[in-house]
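Sample entry follows:

:::
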Amino acid sequence: MLLVESFVTTYHMTMSKGPIQREMEALLVAAFTPNHLTVTNDSATHRGHSGDDGSGESHFTVEIESSAFAGVNRVLRQRMVNKALGDLPGDRVHALAIKARTPGE
């Protein structure tokens, strides 16, 4: 893996990322200016299960750390992430696990 760093964001990039994963990362960076962002494609572990559309980009885990989540409970944080992702969850992404926290949590 190649570690990519910007002034406010650190996240891992791999050469095998698909278009949905790259779109998710871009939307989350734009919405939250995260200190840390990892979007993991879990689709291979769900191959043949419900929701697997064969695209290889149906199941993801998002780990995001941003000061935008300060004073916001876990459910609202997840709603914020889902809103930032627009039509991806439920339309082009079958399953999304979200771990949203503030710096220091």
Q: What stands out?
A: The first strand starts at residue 2 and ends at 5. The chain is about 30% helix and 25% strand. The helical segments are 19-32, 74-84, 88-92.
